[in-house]
Amino acid sequence: MKKIILLLSVSFVFVIGSLVSCKQSDSQSNKETILKGKTTLLVDETVKPLIEDQIAVFESTYNKAKIVLEAKSEKEAMQAFLKDTSRIVVLSRELSTDETKIFEQLKIKPRTTKVATDAIALISNKKDLDTLIAMQDVVAFLKGSMQTKIKGLVFDNPNSSTVRYMTALAGVKEVPQNGVYSFKSNEEVVKFVSENDGMIGVVGVNWLFQPTVKIKDYLTNINVLSVKGLNKNSYFAPTQNNLAEGTYPLARDLFIINCQGYSGLGMGFASFLAGEIGQRIVLKSGMLPTTMPGRKILIIDKEN
C-alpha cells in the first residue's frame, strides 16, 4: 500500500512539474523581445503616415512582431507616456530635464534615437495666388497683430506639436483667441484650407507627400508655401534638399524615445527606423533621413 501511495505521489509531482514546465515554456515563447511580441507605440499625430509605413514594413519583415499605433497630439502622447500607457513614443522633441528625472527615479535610462528631420509646411487656398509667406508676418499674427495679410492660422489640435513649435518661435505662451482655428487632425486642416481662401494651414509635410484617401481630393485646391525665415532675404519650400542645406526655416528633428527598460520591441523598432530600410522609408516620406541610404550601382559589361 505504501508503495502505491509513493508511486502516486511521484506521479503527481511529475505531472505538476510537467505542467509548470509547459507554462514556463509557453511564457518564454510569448515573451517580448526586440523582434517578436506585442507592444503599443505612441506617435505624434503630425507624423502618423510615416510611422504607419514603418510599422507595416517592420511587421512584414518580422512576422512575430505586432506594434499597435496610437496617434495623439504631442501633449496627449506625453501624458500617456508618463502614465505608462506605453513606454515607447515618437516625438518631434527630446524629453525635458523634468521628464527625464521621472524615469531616472524609476531606474530607467531613456534611449533616444534621432530618425529624421521633419518640416512644418504652411499651406494656402489655390485662390490665393501668392505662394510666398514671411515668418515675420506669422509671428506678428501670433502676437495679436491684425496688420498682416493673414486672415487666420489653422492648426490640427490645440495640444499639437505644431502649436508648441510656432508659439515658441513667436515667443508667446499661447495662441491669440481671434483668427486661430484648431481641429482634431491634419486631414481636417487640409480640408478647411482648401475650402476657405485667406487661411494659412499648419501641417506636417508628411501628410502632403503621403496623403490619405480623404486628403487627396483636397490637395488640388491648396498651395504649399515657400517661407522666408526671420531676418532672412530668401524664400524656401519644404523640400528635402532645403532641409539638408538647412535653409528651410520650419525644420525640426524627429525622435523615437524608448523607456521600456528592457530589450523589447522598442529597441528593435528604433534600430529598424535608424537602419537602412527605415531610412529609405523616411526618404520616400518627404522628410530628410538622419543617415542617407547608400546607392549601389551595378555595371554590366555586355560584351563579356
TrEMBL record:
Cited Pfam families: PBP_like_2 (PF12849)
Gene3D superfamilies: Periplasmic binding protein-like II (3.40.190.10)
Keyword Chaperone: no
Domain PBP: 38-275
PROSITE patterns, A to Z: PROKAR_LIPOPROTEIN
Record keywords, A-Z: Signal
Protein name: Phosphate ABC transporter substrate-binding protein
